[in-house]
Fold this sequence. Notes:
Blueprint: H1 19-33, E1 39-42, E2 49-53, E3 56-59, H2 61-70, E4 73-76, H3 86-99, H4 108-122, H5 134-137, H6 149-154, E5 158-161, E6 167-170, E7 173-176, E8 185-191, E9 194-199, E10 202-208, E11 216-217, H7 251-258
Parallel strand pairs: 1-4, 7-11
Antiparallel strand pairs: 2-3, 5-8, 6-7, 8-9, 9-10
Amino acid sequence: MIMGYSRAKYVEFVKRCDLYSLQRCLVNAFEYFGGVPETILTDRMKTVVIGTEGKRIIWNTQFQEFANDMGFVPKICKARRPQTKGKVERLVHYVKDNFLPGRIFTDPNDLNLQAINWCRKVDSKVHGTTGLIPIRELKKEPLLPLPEQNIRDRYRFETRKVSTDCFISYDGIKYGVPWQYAGKELRVRLCDGKFQVYDGPVCIAEHKALYKSGRVSFLPGQYQGLIQKNGLPGAPSYGRQVPKEVEIRPLYVYDQLAGVI
């Protein structure tokens, strides 16, 4: 995201390009800039626009509600006219050519911290086009006040359904929750390197955020009291004990079992 007048920048890397990620990143950008732009120009992506009827734009209802809550007016680029958002296109190339080459990071959280520091660094220098220093000119941007904290926080959460074996899948990782919540829908979010699960206003589980797909994070006491309740449909395979040693048999035994002559 880049501000039209000051050229102040905000960069954030995500694993998904869905509506949840877009809204969360925009909220983070607003807080970074210290306010909400009056107008935001975006691509004609499905997270923003469903389609058009003549000249009338059919907005994604959820994005329109988000824009109303934040207070900005959404606008979209003309079809097949990338030059209408040239500032953003140049920023994308700038990130690829200046920030990413040779970059070393441990996880997406670390990468995003480095990206913010990079934004502050480059915005403290004179801009090649305007001849001004973006971080100083940002104060002159006509930004609207930030919405209340509870409104902003609403768009940091996603809804997930708990599986029968008491896990929530998020970005390809399984996070454990208390077995009593199996089958229920809960709100989840990533916050300060932690994955948090909420039932209403109450945080019922918290894990260190993982970023490599396929991993499983258990919650201490995840299945405590389950046996006394006569188990659960789809009993958790992750909690089962497996024998430490496997009997070694001659291969002809398996031939006999398979009916091989």
